[in-house]
Write a structure and sequence with these properties.
Blueprint (H helix, E strand, L loop, with lengths): L1 E2 L3 E6 L2 E6 L3 E2 H13 L3 H11 L8 H16 L6 E9 L3 E11 L3 E3 L1 E3 L10 E11 L10 H15 L7 E5 L17 H7 L22 H10 L2 H25 L3 E4 L27 E4 L1 H12 L5 E9 L5 E10 L4 E11 L9 H20 L6 E8 L7 H10 L10 H4 L1 E6 L7 E5 L6 H9 L9 E3 L8 H5 L5 E6 L4 H5 L12 H20 L26
Parallel strand pairs: 9-10, 10-11, 11-12, 15-16, 15-17, 17-20, 18-19
Antiparallel strand pairs: 1-4, 2-3, 5-14, 6-7, 6-13, 8-12, 9-13, 14-16, 18-20
Helix pairs in contact: 1-15, 2-9, 4-7, 9-15
Bound molecules: zinc ion.
Length: about 550
């Protein structure tokens, strides 16, 4: 049965436009829901990805195991085309297997800690005094997201501490401020939240960005607004420049021969360690000293003791290695071949890599499980597809969207020069999921006015599951941006936050316990329906005008030049 939601007639200045509604095949939707709700395998995928194969740091041996597992699981589901697609040099792979950090002076106690990625382990147990030498006294100092001020601060830091840090454990971040939590730690979007999101942001009246970009707002909301409008390649360029500045600090710490650096995080409400990296995976970058992230409460105690001039020393041991100094990046790709429009591609994806302190359950085994389940459902129902449906599980998202960017460059086009590949012409749409386990509530339309009514029609059979909004905003910070950057329709699903930002995102408690299975089941059904209908509609997904090639960047201030 097909559902027609009618015709909408607009009459503007005497011109009448007919917007025919999207055709929704309710018999297929109903079969998809039956597979997703009564024969679900989504939590089996989560189990293998997180409990058995997690964490999955980009290019690490456990990532490679998970990628291999995903290929085999897809083939077992009958998707024979599942394969690994290497995309070139990643750099140093890294993995860790143990850590212990003990305060031995002034009291003996153990401290909760996680090593920071791409920093080396210790050779055995090390005992050393602790010195408080923060790069920024205020961990939210706005100057740290201004590249010139950051470069100046690193130069001043070198002068301030030269000859003073040798053999010591350096506490490198400021004391983490604590406030009693004022917001619920787990939340779903309320009706009011969704209504607010459905209004577009006001147009900007001033030039928003420079190229190269030299500073970012510190306030998260302001930063999000900026990320929504600056070209993706400019964002990536900013991150790369910031990383290069951190390498200057690392070279100094290495010259000083520090025993280790220890830090803490400002995310969450305490008790949880959020940990990413210190130093780069790039083979050309300096290897940093051993770097450890401590639980904020334990870190702050060390700082208070030192501020009271009480000598502090720690004993620590980190088991971490670089198994491969020249690891290859590796995506997982799988196809359900189309028939009459076989060359045209509808794609969905999620990143397979994770950070390393938890098991990468909500970030992003959840998303991977949703898209693998959507593939399984389409295959199990043996639906005839006009277009080819393709799955992409990306490597290196957390390291800068490396897998999806490499895929786009190889198959679709170059976002800087806008030189396009033939596959660009026959590519319909990319759909992404990457905000934890929370239920899908809608789609962010990335400013594509033509896509909005299509999504609204496709959401109708899922309204009873809470999926109802087409949010006219750009989402950022994940893999759909790579496709968006070359002018292709690409969208991220809007999901309930749950405790993603307060607890699990990049943290040591990103575990399966924080997954809501029913939410994944609904998201998988919706994703399967979206890609099915995108594969069957008459036309490719409507596109916005192509972005212009990026102009040559302005010269960098002298202090930022390499
Ligand atoms: Zn993620």
């Amino acid at each position: 049965m097909r559902l027609f939601t009618g015709f909408i007639l607009f009459s503007v200045l005497g011109i009448t436009t007919v917007c025919s509604a999207e055709e929704v095949d309710l018999s297929v939707v109903s079969r998809i829901k039956d597979q997703a709700f009564n024969h679900s395998q989504v939590m089996d995928y989560v189990h293998y990805l997180a409990d058995e194969n997690g964490p999955r740091l980009a290019a690490s041996p456990s990532y490679q195991r998970a990628a291999q597992w995903a290929v085999e699981a897809l083939r077992k589901d009958g998707i024979e085309s599942a394969r690994l697609e290497e995309f070139g040099d990643f750099g140093r792979s890294w993995s860790w297997s143990g850590i212990s950090v003990q305060m031995i002076e002034p009291q003996v106690t153990s401290l909760n800690a996680v090593p920071l990625a791409w920093s080396p382990g210790t050779e055995g147990t090390v005992t050393a005094p602790v010195v408080y030498a923060p790069l920024w006294e205020d961990p939210k100092d706005p100057a740290q997201s201004n590249l010139v001020l950051l470069a100046e601060r690193i130069e001043a830091y070198k002068k301030q501490y030269a000859g003073k840090l040798g053999g010591k454990i350096v506490l490198l971040t400021g004391k983490r401020p604590f406030e009693l939590p004022s917001k619920p730690e787990t939340q779903r979007w309320s009706e009011d939240d969704l209504v607010e999101m459905m209004s577009a942001r006001d147009p900007q009246t001033t030039d928003l960005y420079e190229w190269p970009l030299l500073k970012m707002p510190v306030d998260t909301e302001e930063r999000w607004k900026l990320y929504e409008v600056i070209p993706y390649e400019i964002q990536n360029d900013y991150s790369e420049r910031e990383e290069k500045l951190v390498n200057r600090l690392i070279e100094f710490l290495n010259k000083e021969q520090v025993a280790a650096v220890m830090m803490t995080n400002t995310e969450g409400n305490g008790g949880v360690i959020f940990a990413t990296s210190f130093g780069s995976y790039l083979a050309s970058a300096p290897i940093p000293p051993t770097a450890v992230q401590l639980m904020p409460e334990h870190y702050n105690r060390l700082v208070r003791l030192i501020q009271h001039e009480v000598p502090v020393s720690l004993r620590f041991n980190v088991d971490a290695t670089f198994p491969d100094l020249n690891a290859q990046g590796m995506n997982v790709i799988a196809d359900l071949p189309g028939t009459s429009k076989r060359r045209e591609v509808v794609m969905m994806g999620a990143h397979l890599d994770s950070w390393h302190s938890g098991t990468g359950a909500t970030d992003n085994a959840a998303g991977v499980a949703v898209v693998m389940e959507a593939m399984r459902i389409l295959k199990a129902l043996d639906l005839k597809l006009d277009r080819t449906v393709r799955l992409g599980l990306w490597d290196g998202e957390e390291a800068g969207h490396l897998g999806s960017r490499a895929y786009v460059k190889e198959h679709l086009g170059n976002p800087r020069s806008m030189e396009l590949k033939p596959e660009h012409e026959t590519f319909s749409v990319y759909l992404n999921i990457d905000t934890g386990s929370g239920r899908t509530r809608g789609v962010l339309t990335q400013g594509n006015d033509m896509a909005k009514p299509i999504f609204l029609d496709l959401m109708q059979p899922f309204e009873e599951h809470g999926i109802s909004v087409a949010v006219p905003r750009n989402d950022w910070g994940t893999d759909h941006q790579a496709f968006d950057a070359v002018g292709l329709p690409s969208f991220d699903l809007l999901q309930d936050q749950l405790d993603y930002w307060s607890h699990t995102h990049h943290s040591n408690i990103d575990t399966v316990d924080h997954i809501v299975p029913q939410d994944l089941m609904v998201s998988a059904a919706f994703m399967a329906s979206l890609v099915y209908h995108a594969a069957m509609r008459d036309e490719l997904m409507p596109r916005e005008p192509l972005p212009q090639p990026l102009p040559a960047p302005q010269a960098l201030p002298e202090i930022l030049q390499d």
